[in-house]
Specification:
It is a single chain. Strands 2, 3, 5 and 6 form a 4-stranded antiparallel sheet that branches. A 3-stranded antiparallel sheet has the order 7-8-9. Helix 7 packs across helix 8. By secondary structure, the protein is α+β, with helices and mostly antiparallel strands. About 5% of the residues have low confidence. The chain is rod-shaped, with a radius of gyration of 64 Å. The chain folds into 3 domains: about 60 residues, no CATH class; about 100 residues, Band 7 domain (Tetrahydropterin Synthase, Chain A, 2-Layer Sandwich); about 90 residues, no CATH class. Helices cover about 55% and strands about 20% of the residues.
Protein backbone atom coordinates (compact mmCIF):
# COMPACT_ATOMS: atom_id res chain seq x y z
CA UNK A 1 0.00 0.00 0.00
CA UNK A 2 1.51 3.22 -1.09
CA UNK A 3 1.63 6.42 0.94
CA UNK A 4 -0.73 8.16 -1.48
CA UNK A 5 -3.43 5.58 -0.89
CA UNK A 6 -3.09 5.94 2.86
CA UNK A 7 -3.45 9.68 2.65
CA UNK A 8 -6.52 9.26 0.47
CA UNK A 9 -8.15 6.92 2.98
CA UNK A 10 -7.40 9.28 5.86
CA UNK A 11 -8.81 12.16 3.85
CA UNK A 12 -12.00 10.25 3.10
CA UNK A 13 -12.49 9.34 6.76
CA UNK A 14 -11.91 12.94 7.78
CA UNK A 15 -14.43 14.18 5.27
CA UNK A 16 -16.95 11.62 6.46
CA UNK A 17 -16.50 12.71 10.09
CA UNK A 18 -16.84 16.35 9.13
CA UNK A 19 -19.97 15.65 7.10
CA UNK A 20 -21.48 13.61 9.94
CA UNK A 21 -20.82 16.41 12.39
CA UNK A 22 -22.75 18.79 10.19
CA UNK A 23 -25.96 16.72 10.40
CA UNK A 24 -28.35 17.28 13.32
CA UNK A 25 -31.68 15.57 14.12
CA UNK A 26 -34.03 17.58 16.38
CA UNK A 27 -36.78 15.52 18.13
CA UNK A 28 -40.40 16.59 18.18
CA UNK A 29 -41.35 19.28 20.78
CA UNK A 30 -37.71 20.35 21.00
CA UNK A 31 -35.90 23.39 19.70
CA UNK A 32 -32.22 24.05 19.10
CA UNK A 33 -30.30 27.30 19.06
CA UNK A 34 -27.48 27.55 16.45
CA UNK A 35 -24.61 29.98 17.12
CA UNK A 36 -22.28 30.81 14.27
CA UNK A 37 -18.93 32.08 15.43
CA UNK A 38 -20.45 32.85 18.85
CA UNK A 39 -23.48 34.78 17.60
CA UNK A 40 -27.09 33.65 17.34
CA UNK A 41 -27.72 32.31 13.87
CA UNK A 42 -31.05 30.49 13.79
CA UNK A 43 -33.42 28.19 15.69
CA UNK A 44 -33.57 24.56 14.62
CA UNK A 45 -37.03 23.06 14.15
CA UNK A 46 -37.83 19.38 14.70
CA UNK A 47 -36.46 17.10 11.98
CA UNK A 48 -33.21 16.68 10.02
CA UNK A 49 -31.05 19.80 9.56
CA UNK A 50 -27.51 20.63 8.44
CA UNK A 51 -25.00 22.94 10.06
CA UNK A 52 -21.57 24.09 9.08
CA UNK A 53 -18.98 22.07 10.95
CA UNK A 54 -16.48 23.92 13.07
CA UNK A 55 -18.37 27.18 12.48
CA UNK A 56 -21.89 26.53 13.77
CA UNK A 57 -22.48 25.32 17.30
CA UNK A 58 -25.79 23.92 18.57
CA UNK A 59 -26.68 24.78 22.16
CA UNK A 60 -28.57 22.22 24.36
CA UNK A 61 -32.06 21.52 23.11
CA UNK A 62 -34.96 23.28 24.80
CA UNK A 63 -38.13 21.39 25.76
CA UNK A 64 -41.23 23.09 24.31
CA UNK A 65 -43.75 20.98 26.22
CA UNK A 66 -45.69 22.28 29.25
CA UNK A 67 -43.65 21.86 32.37
CA UNK A 68 -44.73 21.61 36.00
CA UNK A 69 -42.64 23.06 38.80
CA UNK A 70 -43.49 22.77 42.50
CA UNK A 71 -41.82 25.21 44.85
CA UNK A 72 -41.20 24.55 48.57
CA UNK A 73 -43.45 26.23 51.18
CA UNK A 74 -42.88 29.92 51.53
CA UNK A 75 -43.68 31.90 54.69
CA UNK A 76 -46.15 34.67 53.91
CA UNK A 77 -47.67 37.25 56.27
CA UNK A 78 -51.38 37.96 55.86
CA UNK A 79 -53.19 41.22 56.46
CA UNK A 80 -54.15 40.12 60.00
CA UNK A 81 -50.45 39.49 60.84
CA UNK A 82 -50.48 35.70 60.67
CA UNK A 83 -47.60 33.77 59.15
CA UNK A 84 -48.78 31.01 56.83
CA UNK A 85 -46.79 28.55 54.72
CA UNK A 86 -47.95 28.32 51.10
CA UNK A 87 -46.92 25.72 48.53
CA UNK A 88 -47.30 26.76 44.88
CA UNK A 89 -47.37 24.80 41.65
CA UNK A 90 -46.69 26.52 38.31
CA UNK A 91 -47.46 25.21 34.83
CA UNK A 92 -45.44 27.01 32.11
CA UNK A 93 -44.49 26.54 28.49
CA UNK A 94 -41.49 27.88 26.51
CA UNK A 95 -42.87 29.75 23.51
CA UNK A 96 -39.64 31.41 22.28
CA UNK A 97 -36.47 29.34 22.53
CA UNK A 98 -34.23 32.30 21.57
CA UNK A 99 -35.67 34.56 24.35
CA UNK A 100 -35.58 31.76 26.92
CA UNK A 101 -31.90 31.26 26.09
CA UNK A 102 -30.65 34.82 25.90
CA UNK A 103 -33.10 36.89 28.01
CA UNK A 104 -32.76 35.06 31.33
CA UNK A 105 -29.90 33.06 32.74
CA UNK A 106 -31.86 30.63 34.91
CA UNK A 107 -35.57 30.56 33.99
CA UNK A 108 -36.72 28.28 36.83
CA UNK A 109 -34.99 30.30 39.53
CA UNK A 110 -36.34 33.51 38.06
CA UNK A 111 -39.88 32.12 38.00
CA UNK A 112 -39.55 30.91 41.60
CA UNK A 113 -38.39 34.23 42.94
CA UNK A 114 -41.00 36.11 40.97
CA UNK A 115 -43.69 33.77 42.30
CA UNK A 116 -42.59 34.31 45.92
CA UNK A 117 -42.59 38.08 45.67
CA UNK A 118 -45.91 38.18 43.82
CA UNK A 119 -47.46 35.76 46.31
CA UNK A 120 -46.40 37.92 49.25
CA UNK A 121 -47.87 41.02 47.63
CA UNK A 122 -51.19 39.30 46.92
CA UNK A 123 -51.55 37.47 50.27
CA UNK A 124 -50.40 40.56 52.20
CA UNK A 125 -53.62 42.31 51.25
CA UNK A 126 -55.89 39.44 52.33
CA UNK A 127 -56.90 38.00 55.67
CA UNK A 128 -56.41 34.36 56.58
CA UNK A 129 -60.06 33.52 55.99
CA UNK A 130 -59.99 35.17 52.56
CA UNK A 131 -56.80 33.28 51.73
CA UNK A 132 -58.39 29.96 52.62
CA UNK A 133 -61.66 30.63 50.81
CA UNK A 134 -60.45 32.65 47.79
CA UNK A 135 -57.89 30.42 46.16
CA UNK A 136 -59.28 30.98 42.67
CA UNK A 137 -58.86 34.73 43.07
CA UNK A 138 -55.26 34.29 44.31
CA UNK A 139 -54.47 31.95 41.41
CA UNK A 140 -55.84 34.42 38.87
CA UNK A 141 -53.84 37.32 40.29
CA UNK A 142 -50.63 35.30 40.41
CA UNK A 143 -51.08 34.07 36.85
CA UNK A 144 -51.72 37.55 35.52
CA UNK A 145 -48.57 39.00 37.17
CA UNK A 146 -46.31 36.07 36.25
CA UNK A 147 -47.55 35.85 32.69
CA UNK A 148 -46.84 39.54 32.16
CA UNK A 149 -43.34 39.31 33.66
CA UNK A 150 -42.28 36.08 31.92
CA UNK A 151 -43.63 37.07 28.53
CA UNK A 152 -40.38 38.81 27.55
CA UNK A 153 -38.48 35.68 28.58
CA UNK A 154 -40.28 33.61 25.99
CA UNK A 155 -42.22 31.74 28.68
CA UNK A 156 -45.99 31.58 29.05
CA UNK A 157 -47.40 30.75 32.48
CA UNK A 158 -50.50 28.59 31.98
CA UNK A 159 -51.67 27.98 35.54
CA UNK A 160 -50.68 28.84 39.09
CA UNK A 161 -52.14 26.74 41.90
CA UNK A 162 -51.87 26.99 45.68
CA UNK A 163 -51.18 23.43 46.67
CA UNK A 164 -51.52 23.96 50.41
CA UNK A 165 -52.01 26.78 52.89
CA UNK A 166 -50.78 25.95 56.38
CA UNK A 167 -51.72 28.45 59.13
CA UNK A 168 -49.92 28.45 62.50
CA UNK A 169 -50.55 25.57 64.88
CA UNK A 170 -52.51 27.70 67.35
CA UNK A 171 -54.76 28.92 64.54
CA UNK A 172 -55.30 25.35 63.37
CA UNK A 173 -56.33 24.29 66.88
CA UNK A 174 -58.74 27.23 67.11
CA UNK A 175 -60.21 26.35 63.72
CA UNK A 176 -60.64 22.72 64.77
CA UNK A 177 -62.44 23.81 67.94
CA UNK A 178 -64.66 26.08 65.88
CA UNK A 179 -65.49 23.25 63.49
CA UNK A 180 -66.26 20.90 66.38
CA UNK A 181 -68.51 23.53 67.96
CA UNK A 182 -70.29 24.04 64.64
CA UNK A 183 -70.81 20.28 64.25
CA UNK A 184 -72.10 20.04 67.82
CA UNK A 185 -74.48 22.93 67.16
CA UNK A 186 -75.80 21.28 64.02
CA UNK A 187 -76.18 17.98 65.84
CA UNK A 188 -78.09 19.71 68.65
CA UNK A 189 -80.35 21.42 66.15
CA UNK A 190 -81.03 18.17 64.33
CA UNK A 191 -81.71 16.39 67.63
CA UNK A 192 -84.12 19.15 68.69
CA UNK A 193 -85.87 18.97 65.34
CA UNK A 194 -86.19 15.22 65.71
CA UNK A 195 -87.62 15.55 69.24
CA UNK A 196 -90.00 18.25 68.00
CA UNK A 197 -91.26 16.09 65.14
CA UNK A 198 -91.58 13.12 67.50
CA UNK A 199 -93.63 15.14 69.99
CA UNK A 200 -95.80 16.51 67.19
CA UNK A 201 -96.46 13.01 65.86
CA UNK A 202 -97.15 11.73 69.39
CA UNK A 203 -99.58 14.59 70.05
CA UNK A 204 -101.31 13.94 66.74
CA UNK A 205 -101.61 10.27 67.62
CA UNK A 206 -103.00 11.05 71.08
CA UNK A 207 -105.43 13.55 69.53
CA UNK A 208 -106.70 11.01 67.02
CA UNK A 209 -106.90 8.37 69.76
CA UNK A 210 -108.91 10.73 72.02
CA UNK A 211 -111.23 11.58 69.13
CA UNK A 212 -111.78 7.91 68.38
CA UNK A 213 -112.38 7.13 72.07
CA UNK A 214 -114.85 10.01 72.33
CA UNK A 215 -116.66 8.83 69.22
CA UNK A 216 -116.74 5.29 70.64
CA UNK A 217 -118.07 6.54 73.99
CA UNK A 218 -120.68 8.65 72.22
CA UNK A 219 -121.79 5.71 70.10
CA UNK A 220 -121.90 3.46 73.18
CA UNK A 221 -123.94 6.05 75.13
CA UNK A 222 -126.34 6.42 72.21
CA UNK A 223 -126.77 2.67 71.92
CA UNK A 224 -127.17 2.32 75.71
CA UNK A 225 -129.79 5.11 75.78
CA UNK A 226 -131.59 3.53 72.88
CA UNK A 227 -131.51 0.17 74.69
CA UNK A 228 -132.82 1.67 77.94
CA UNK A 229 -135.52 3.53 76.03
CA UNK A 230 -136.49 0.29 74.29
CA UNK A 231 -136.56 -1.52 77.65
CA UNK A 232 -138.71 1.19 79.27
CA UNK A 233 -141.02 1.16 76.29
CA UNK A 234 -141.28 -2.63 76.49
CA UNK A 235 -142.01 -2.55 80.25
CA UNK A 236 -144.50 0.26 79.78
CA UNK A 237 -146.31 -1.63 77.05
CA UNK A 238 -146.26 -4.82 79.10
CA UNK A 239 -147.77 -3.05 82.15
CA UNK A 240 -150.52 -1.46 80.10
CA UNK A 241 -151.25 -4.65 78.26
CA UNK A 242 -151.41 -6.62 81.55
CA UNK A 243 -153.90 -4.14 83.11
CA UNK A 244 -152.77 -4.57 86.77
CA UNK A 245 -155.40 -4.06 89.46
CA UNK A 246 -155.07 -2.16 92.73
CA UNK A 247 -154.30 -5.26 94.73
CA UNK A 248 -151.22 -6.04 92.63
CA UNK A 249 -149.92 -2.49 93.07
CA UNK A 250 -150.36 -2.67 96.87
CA UNK A 251 -148.64 -6.03 96.87
CA UNK A 252 -145.63 -4.58 95.03
CA UNK A 253 -145.62 -1.67 97.50
CA UNK A 254 -145.41 -4.01 100.46
CA UNK A 255 -142.65 -6.04 98.82
CA UNK A 256 -140.52 -2.88 98.54
CA UNK A 257 -140.73 -2.07 102.28
CA UNK A 258 -138.23 -4.75 103.46
CA UNK A 259 -135.65 -3.42 100.98
CA UNK A 260 -135.93 0.04 102.54
CA UNK A 261 -134.96 -1.42 105.94
CA UNK A 262 -131.70 -2.87 104.63
CA UNK A 263 -128.43 -1.10 105.47
CA UNK A 264 -126.65 -0.01 108.67
CA UNK A 265 -127.67 3.65 108.37
CA UNK A 266 -131.41 2.98 108.29
CA UNK A 267 -132.28 3.46 111.96
CA UNK A 268 -135.39 5.66 111.82
CA UNK A 269 -138.43 5.16 109.64
CA UNK A 270 -141.32 7.48 109.11
CA UNK A 271 -144.20 5.18 108.33
CA UNK A 272 -147.11 6.84 106.58
CA UNK A 273 -150.57 6.63 108.07
CA UNK A 274 -151.80 4.85 104.99
CA UNK A 275 -149.60 1.82 105.78
CA UNK A 276 -152.12 0.27 108.19
CA UNK A 277 -154.99 0.77 105.83
CA UNK A 278 -152.92 -0.75 102.98
CA UNK A 279 -152.09 -3.79 105.05
CA UNK A 280 -155.72 -4.19 106.15
CA UNK A 281 -157.06 -3.78 102.65
CA UNK A 282 -154.56 -6.25 101.23
CA UNK A 283 -155.30 -8.77 103.97
CA UNK A 284 -159.01 -8.50 103.37
CA UNK A 285 -158.59 -8.97 99.67
CA UNK A 286 -156.36 -12.04 99.93
CA UNK A 287 -157.80 -13.63 103.12
CA UNK A 288 -161.44 -12.47 103.08
CA UNK A 289 -164.21 -14.92 103.97
CA UNK A 290 -166.15 -14.06 100.86
CA UNK A 291 -163.92 -15.49 98.20
CA UNK A 292 -165.40 -16.67 94.96
CA UNK A 293 -165.02 -20.31 94.27
CA UNK A 294 -162.04 -20.97 92.06
CA UNK A 295 -162.67 -23.09 89.05
CA UNK A 296 -160.83 -26.30 88.50
CA UNK A 297 -157.31 -25.82 87.31
CA UNK A 298 -156.74 -22.62 89.37
CA UNK A 299 -154.28 -24.24 91.78
CA UNK A 300 -151.43 -22.08 90.61
CA UNK A 301 -153.40 -18.88 91.34
CA UNK A 302 -154.18 -20.12 94.84
CA UNK A 303 -150.50 -20.66 95.47
CA UNK A 304 -149.74 -17.14 94.24
CA UNK A 305 -152.41 -15.66 96.54
CA UNK A 306 -151.09 -17.62 99.49
CA UNK A 307 -147.52 -16.48 98.85
CA UNK A 308 -148.67 -12.88 98.50
CA UNK A 309 -150.54 -13.11 101.81
CA UNK A 310 -147.41 -14.47 103.53
CA UNK A 311 -145.26 -11.71 102.01
CA UNK A 312 -147.75 -9.08 103.28
CA UNK A 313 -147.58 -10.52 106.80
CA UNK A 314 -143.75 -10.59 106.67
CA UNK A 315 -143.72 -6.98 105.52
CA UNK A 316 -146.02 -5.95 108.36
CA UNK A 317 -143.84 -7.69 110.93
CA UNK A 318 -140.68 -6.09 109.48
CA UNK A 319 -142.32 -2.67 109.60
CA UNK A 320 -143.39 -3.16 113.24
CA UNK A 321 -139.88 -4.31 114.20
CA UNK A 322 -138.34 -1.33 112.48
CA UNK A 323 -140.74 1.01 114.30
CA UNK A 324 -139.81 -0.46 117.68
CA UNK A 325 -136.10 -0.19 116.88
CA UNK A 326 -136.51 3.44 115.86
CA UNK A 327 -138.35 4.28 119.06
CA UNK A 328 -135.69 2.63 121.21
CA UNK A 329 -132.92 4.50 119.36
CA UNK A 330 -134.75 7.79 119.87
CA UNK A 331 -135.20 7.16 123.61
CA UNK A 332 -131.53 6.24 124.04
CA UNK A 333 -130.51 9.64 122.59
CA UNK A 334 -126.98 8.50 121.73
CA UNK A 335 -125.32 10.70 119.07
CA UNK A 336 -127.15 12.68 116.46
CA UNK A 337 -129.81 10.59 114.78
CA UNK A 338 -129.57 10.35 111.03
CA UNK A 339 -132.02 12.11 108.81
CA UNK A 340 -135.40 10.36 108.85
CA UNK A 341 -136.16 8.27 105.85
CA UNK A 342 -139.66 8.72 104.56
CA UNK A 343 -141.51 5.85 103.03
CA UNK A 344 -143.70 6.76 100.13
CA UNK A 345 -147.42 6.29 100.79
CA UNK A 346 -149.10 3.22 99.38
CA UNK A 347 -151.43 3.47 96.48
CA UNK A 348 -155.03 4.26 97.39
CA UNK A 349 -157.32 1.41 98.32
CA UNK A 350 -159.67 0.20 95.63
CA UNK A 351 -163.22 1.46 95.72
CA UNK A 352 -165.71 -0.78 97.50
Amino acid sequence: MTAGLIVLIVLIVFLFIVAASGVRIVPQARAGIVERLGRYSRTLDPGLTLIVPFIDRVKPLIDLREQVVSFPPQPVITEDNLVVGIDTVIYFTVTDARAATYEVANPLQAIEQLTVTTLRNVIGGMTLEETLTSRDSVNSQLRAVLDEATGRWGIRVGRVELKSVEPPRTVQEAMEKQMRAERDRRATILTAEGVKQSQILTAEGEKQSAVLRAEGARTAAILKAEGEAKAIETVFNAIHEGAPDQALLQYQYLQTLPQLAQGDANKIWIIPSEFTSAVSSLTEQFAGATKPKKPAGATSMDEIDERARKDAEDAARAAAAATEEAESATNAGVGTPPAPREIPPPPPAPAA
